[in-house]
């Protein structure tokens, strides 16, 4: 069988990253990929269409030991979630032209043997499974215009909760109220005193905090939680680029207010994916759930899109469209 | 009816306390108490026999706002749990000489209208209800020789867990192994590196942490927790006397390891008291559960006994015997 070869541009992590990631921590590389696939194998060749930029990827840029996830390997392509089109397939479950998604390399073409799942489920599992929400409760979401936050806020509104979100840019704050239907929203960068800001929006306290940022915001939230409140810890993006994380000082509130604070990862909730789709698809079709994506165009824009995530440049879920097909 | 009067020595909080409490923050006062009780009322006159010294009392010495518990009132007696004997009763549920316990003033005689519940249940509810323990799991208890810790360790052993405790004095550490049957114990004051100490005793990590101390120990525990570990937050005694609490830096572990960290107070579990007694009494009689009390003698010793708690002078549950009757 003649070997079919293709040029395959890749984005390589040059070295482990300290502090905020920079575009220069990555480099482009031209490689060659063989497209031959043995029929009956479970190998599929994909043309990648969208790359997803997500905060957890920052952790993978550091040298991690015993973490829940592996570090990227310097000298090799970054990997992440993405949407792809099937080019060649050894597995008869696939056909040419099928759209699939999963964890792939940041490259034009990928050869994979399995497929995996994507975000959305994070918001679904985190809110419904970890927060134990009830109608009428008060909900605070930080990084609320992000990929997960925007969905959590809408789920909470659908359930009849009072929902407030924080973000770091006027455009995002406006969007929370006008686009996603949050009851209130504020720009945390404009607040001298986060405690006072939370007291303004939650005079009687917070039942549920969906935590995406960590640090000072968490400290301010702790003193504003209600008795028997719940904190779902989804992310701590404000801490990922610090050499030494900020200390959290108000954990005694966990006792005084009998708060449950629980970390979670979407990996543990993949079994809910069919249930999630069953719920979300009709809601999206009916226009009850909306989403905002920030689409960077072209493979070359991927490093800057990823780096921008950590200074909040993205408005909504950051993706990179690397192919129109 | 002739009024019956008695001298009633009391221990008064002089002022709100900052930093470590001192004996001089309290003072003795001679007052007079009227012993008359109207038959058919729900009033009971008690002669106090034991006073209980507990870490949560430190919080009540500060000026608290919106806390789970009220501050003591400067100029009035300190209050706390205690065991008392009924002297006079308006309520026919009581007889002279009955031993009762509940929340009373630190004074020789108290006039009360209700009775409440005592510690022990804290260990019971915290371990069985909050920790979700399973046979064979690894359990770490800080302040392990204290009133709550010594029981938690024994409950965990009864269930077939591997149990390690920490304490701050050789005598206490020895007692954990020889008296309470902990598998291992260590003196946290002799460890340069708490992380290394925990790795020595938990090479495969900790399933359950029963948190009594907070601060640096919590930070070291977080990095040594296993996936899906549970932290029951019962107290943070290392932080109670600090003007500014230590920051906790490793909360990202909650996400990476999907840890549930839950604060609790015994108030929420009083309904379990009958179930607790049903379990604990036969175990104590059979010698399966033991306890160590540190009994200070005489009303005059109460302030020093309370103050000593915060530098770990007590060995076991600290009580003050103020009467032999």
From TrEMBL, chains A, B:
<keyword id="KW-0560">Oxidoreductase</keyword>
<protein>
    <recommendedName>
        <fullName>Enoyl reductase (ER) domain-containing protein</fullName>
    </recommendedName>
</protein>
<dbReference type="InterPro" id="IPR013149">
    <property type="entry name" value="ADH-like_C"/>
</dbReference>
<dbReference type="InterPro" id="IPR011032">
    <property type="entry name" value="GroES-like_sf"/>
</dbReference>
<dbReference type="Pfam" id="PF16884">
    <property type="entry name" value="ADH_N_2"/>
</dbReference>
<dbReference type="InterPro" id="IPR036291">
    <property type="entry name" value="NAD(P)-bd_dom_sf"/>
</dbReference>
<dbReference type="GO" id="GO:0032440">
    <property type="term" value="F:2-alkenal reductase [NAD(P)H] activity"/>
</dbReference>
<dbReference type="InterPro" id="IPR041694">
    <property type="entry name" value="ADH_N_2"/>
</dbReference>
<dbReference type="InterPro" id="IPR045010">
    <property type="entry name" value="MDR_fam"/>
</dbReference>
<feature type="domain" description="Enoyl reductase (ER)">
    <location>
        <begin position="44"/>
        <end position="320"/>
    </location>
</feature>
<dbReference type="InterPro" id="IPR020843">
    <property type="entry name" value="ER"/>
</dbReference>
<dbReference type="Pfam" id="PF00107">
    <property type="entry name" value="ADH_zinc_N"/>
</dbReference>
């Amino acid at each position: 069988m003649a070997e079919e070869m293709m040029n395959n541009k890749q984005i390589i992590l040059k070295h482990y990253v300290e502090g905020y990631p920079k575009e220069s921590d990555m480099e482009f590389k031209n490689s060659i990929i063989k497209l031959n696939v043995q029929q009956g194998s479970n190998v599929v060749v994909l043309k990648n269409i969208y790359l997803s930029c997500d905060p957890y990827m920052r952790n993978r840029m550091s040298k991690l030991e015993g973490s829940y996830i592996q570090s990227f390997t310097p000298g090799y392509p970054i990997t992440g979630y993405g949407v792809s089109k099937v080019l060649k397939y050894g597995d008869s479950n696939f056909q040419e032209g099928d759209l699939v998604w999963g964890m792939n390399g940041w490259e034009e073409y990928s050869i994979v043997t399995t497929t995996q799942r994507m975000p959305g489920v994070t918001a679904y599992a985190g809110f419904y499974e970890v927060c134990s929400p009830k109608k009428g409760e008060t909900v605070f979401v930080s990084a609320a215009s992000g990929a997960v936050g925007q969905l959590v806020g809408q789920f909470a509104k659908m359930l009849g909760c009072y929902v407030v979100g924080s973000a770091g840019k006027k455009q995002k704050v406006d969007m929370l109220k006008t686009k996603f239907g949050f009851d209130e929203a504020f720009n945390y960068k404009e607040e001298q005193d986060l405690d006072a800001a939370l007291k303004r929006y939650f005079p009687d306290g917070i039942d549920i905090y969906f935590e995406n940022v960590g640090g000072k915001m968490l400290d301010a939230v702790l003193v504003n939680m209600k008795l028997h409140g719940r904190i779902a810890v989804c992310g701590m993006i404000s801490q990922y680029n610090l050499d030494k994380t900020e200390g959290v000082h108000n954990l005694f509130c966990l006792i005084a207010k009998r708060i449950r604070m629980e970390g979670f990862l979407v990996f543990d909730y993949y079994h809910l994916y069919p249930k999630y789709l069953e719920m979300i698809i009709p809601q999206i079709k009916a226009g009850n759930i909306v989403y905002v994506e920030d689409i960077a165009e072209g493979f070359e824009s991927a490093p800057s899109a990823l780096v921008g995530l950590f200074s909040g440049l993205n408005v909504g879920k950051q993706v990179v469209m690397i192919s129109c097909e």
